[in-house]
Amino acid sequence: MAETSKSRAPGRLTLSPAPHFGAPTSTAWMTWIVSLSLVPAAVWGVFLFGLPAVRVIATSICVAVAAELASSALFRRFTLADGSALLTGLLVGLLMPAGAPLYVPAAAAAFGILVVKQSFGGLGRNWMNPALGGVVFALLSWSSAMTRWAAVGDASVGTAVVPPLEALRSALSAPGAVGRPLEILASHGYVFSSLDGRIVSWLNSHVLSLFHAALAGGSFDILVGYVSGRIGEVSAPLLMVGAAFLLWRRIVRWQVPVAYIATFAFLALVFGGLAGGQGWFSGGPLFHVLSGSLILGAFFMAGDPVTSPLASTGSWIYGIGLGLLTFLLRFYGSLGDGVAVSIVLGNCAVPLIDKLVLQHAPARAREGI
Amino acid sequence: MTHSNGLPRGGVNPPDSSLISREAPIANAVVPSVAVIPMLQHAGRAAVCVVKPGDLVREGMLIGRADGARSANVHSSIPGRVVEVRRVALQEGVSSDAAVIELGGEFDRSGRPRTLKEWEKLSRIDLLGRIQSAGVVGLGGELVPTHLKLAVAPGMSGSLLVANGIDCEPSLSADYALMREKPGEIVESLRICQVLVGASRVVLALGEDAEGLVPEFERALARASLQCEIALMSSRYPQGNEQLVLSSLDGARPSRPRAASIVLNVATLFAIYEAVVMDAPLIERVLTVTGAPVASPRNLKVRLGTPVRELFDDCGGLLAEPGKIVVGGPMRGVAIASLDVPVTKGTAGVIAFAGAEARTRKEWPCIHCGVCMEVCPWDLVPTRLHKLIQQGEIEQAMGEGLGRCTECGCCAFACPSHIPLVDILRTGKRSRGRAGDG
Amino acid sequence: MTPSDVLSRGIPRDDPTAVLLVGLCPAAAVSVRVIDSLWMAAGIFAVMLLSGFCMALLARGKTNDGEVAPRAAAGGWLAALVISSFLTASFEIVLLRAAPEASAALGIYAPLIAVNCLVLTVIDESSRAPSPGRALLDAAGKGAVFAACLLLIGVFREVLGAGTITLFPLSGFSGTIVIGSLSRDPARAISFAGGGLLCLGYLAALARAVKERRL
Question: Which domain holds residue A121?
Answer without folding.
Answer: 28-147
